Amino acid sequence: MRGYAQGKNDYLQRLRRIEGQVRGLQRMVEEDVYCIDVLTQVSAATAALRTVAVSLLDDHLSQCVSGAIEEGGSVADDKLREASEAISRLVRS
Amino acid sequence: MRGYAQGKNDYLQRLRRIEGQVRGLQRMVEEDVYCIDVLTQVSAATAALRTVAVSLLDDHLSQCVSGAIEEGGSVADDKLREASEAISRLVRS
Amino acid sequence: MRGYAQGKNDYLQRLRRIEGQVRGLQRMVEEDVYCIDVLTQVSAATAALRTVAVSLLDDHLSQCVSGAIEEGGSVADDKLREASEAISRLVRS
Amino acid sequence: MRGYAQGKNDYLQRLRRIEGQVRGLQRMVEEDVYCIDVLTQVSAATAALRTVAVSLLDDHLSQCVSGAIEEGGSVADDKLREASEAISRLVRS
After folding, report:
1. Average model confidence (pLDDT) for chain C?
2. Contact C61/A70, CB-based, under 8 Å?
3. Which residue of A has its CA nearest to C66?
4. Which of B16, C46, C74, C83 is the most exposed place for a label (fewest CB within 10 A)?
5. What is the pTM of this model?
């Protein structure tokens, strides 16, 4: 069981929509759509991926990290360090 | 002819790779892969989209905007304003 | 006691350095320094602020949120929701 | 004369306000203000710096880069390459 288990279908739906956006981008490039319109669509797909990332992180904190802290011990510290690194990667991506 | 015309095949290849990453993300969620590993892959796809956006903007500036400025007149101003708005959207996405 | 208590002096030092960077930016603008060089310095200050934010979030998770989860109850949920909102704001800033 | 010459006073005012925000952050840390409130203020200062960066880039494109393109030659190419690198740094900061 993962932190995102409860929202699994929702995540799959959002990822399929993002896949559609990226396929749409290929079509736009193939059809020589104006650069700025392609860029607007790239920004939309990027923002959608960011939203997925923030949701995954929320679920991870409230399920996995929270669970590890309740159990206590060194696992909790490891989970927190791991989550911090993921946040750092996310902020910089 | 668009600013990205010369690199069209390269863009298509990069976008297909990103599409593959997003499909990979769906598989990861379906197979209950650990949240942090999903997140790492989301960050990778986001960074790849950003790189595409920066390249598209480069091409747009050096081709379309540059061409409009050489021609002069109000079109140049419009192109610059449009490019600025795209940069602003990109920075915030 | 706050999550950042142990690193307080380090945070103050980093913030003073960022304050110095922002004052440096004013001097650059006053002395008509070349736009791109001003921009490079703005990016440096932004990156320094981001690093402070990620550290503060780390400390907050490993101290405050962690403590609330150990105690359990609705406070833990509130802390987690609050942290998620802060991450979301940070990612979008 | 720089691209930001006309808005110089406005830039100085915005930078002084950001300096004030960063000094405010030091006071918050000294007075042990709650982490999340400090973080909110860090996000506000980061967003303000980003807005300054986007404005500087706008001015640079519409003044310096535009001027170089009108003059033509290799200087225009250099300016465009330089602007692209600044955008790339900005997006990643």
Report:
1. 93
2. no
3. A69
4. C74
5. 0.90
- Count of the separate structural domains present in chain D: 1
Measured between beta carbons, which residues in chain B are less than 8 angstroms from residue D72?
A: 70
Could you tell me if B5 and B60 are in contact, meaning their C-beta atoms sit under 8 angstroms apart?
no
Interface check for A74 against chain C (CB to CB < 8 A): the answer is no
Counting as contact any 3 or more CB pairs under 8 A, the partners of D are: B, C
How large is the ipTM? Answer: 0.93
Cα A46–chain centre separation: 10
Q: Spell out the residues 6+ positions from residue D48 whose beta carbon is closer than 8 angstroms to its own.
A: D14, D17, D18, D21
Going by C-alpha positions, the residue among D62, D57, D59, D63 that lies closest to residue D82 is: D57
Q: What is the 3-state secondary structure (H, E, C) of D8-40?
A: HHHHHHHHHHHHHHHHHHHHHHHCCCCHHHHHH
Can you tell me the distance from the alpha carbon of D19 to that of D83, in angstroms, rounded to the nearest whole number?
26
Boundaries of domain holding D69:
5-92
CATH number for the domain harbouring residue C45: 1.20.58.1000
Burial class of C39 by CB neighbour count within 10 A (0 to 12, 13 to 18, 19+): buried
Query: Which chains pack against A, by 3+ Cβ pairs within 8 A?
Result: B, C
pLDDT in tens, B16-71: 999 999 999 999 999 999 999 999 999 999 999 999 999 999 999 999 999 998 88
Neighbours of C71 (CB within 10 A): 10
Residue B27 exposed, middle or buried by CB count within 10 Å (0-12, 13-18, 19+): exposed
The answer to whether residue B81 neighbours chain A at the CB level (below 8 Å) is no
**What is the rounded distance in angstroms from the CA atom of residue B16 to the CA atom of residue B45?**
11
Q: Is the pLDDT reported for residue D76 higher than 90?
A: no
The segments of chain C whose pLDDT lies below 70 read: none
